[in-house]
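Aim 2 progress update. The chain analyzed this quarter is reproduced below.
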Amino acid sequence: MEPEKDIFDQWQEERESRSWLRKKLDSISLWWEHNGKYLHLEFKRGIQNLVYWLPVIWKDRNWDNSFIFTILSHKLKAQSTYIGDRDIHTRAKRDAEVMMSCVRLIEKVQVEWYGMEYMDYHKTKHWFEPVEGEEGYSTWESIELEENFDDYFAKYPLIHKRVMNGEGWLKIEDENDKDRIASNIARINHDRARKLLFKIIEQNIEKWWD
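Predicted structure tokens:
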């Protein structure tokens, strides 16, 4: 039989009907049951957190995105270990693996690994050339000693095709300008890695609880 009042309304009325002293005693009892008797454990966790975070916070600065990534990576490592080790639900191990995948992506994005990868496929010599008749002035000169960009292009054929179709931050006026083509592929790959990182986080972060 359907009751006349909603159960939550009934509970609210019951609480409001209690005396001030009864309410206070109930709140103390509730606090002790859920928080008070665990204060020593919370204190221990707090100390452990201070020890864990101190090296990161000590080195933290506000002028570079790299520091944001460092904090995010540190948090994901801790939560991955906690959830993976406890393993109290069916996807715990998988969640821990996904978090560590994010950590590895963060490391790649932080150092611009994909953005600099193309530099492994060529060797260039750089030097300052004094300007004749202008004492104290020099020009920056460089000469390419060797390159193997074709292997780099073969590694990312779909991205190479996108660049040859006009995508990229550098304009390609000559299809033989391999350095610019490679630079565009590198920039696109870096952007892809960053977007993939935050896409994984967006799709999974609300599942990461224990």
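DSSP finds nine helices and two strands in the chain. The radius of gyration is 29 Å. These observations will guide the mutagenesis experiments scheduled for the next reporting period.
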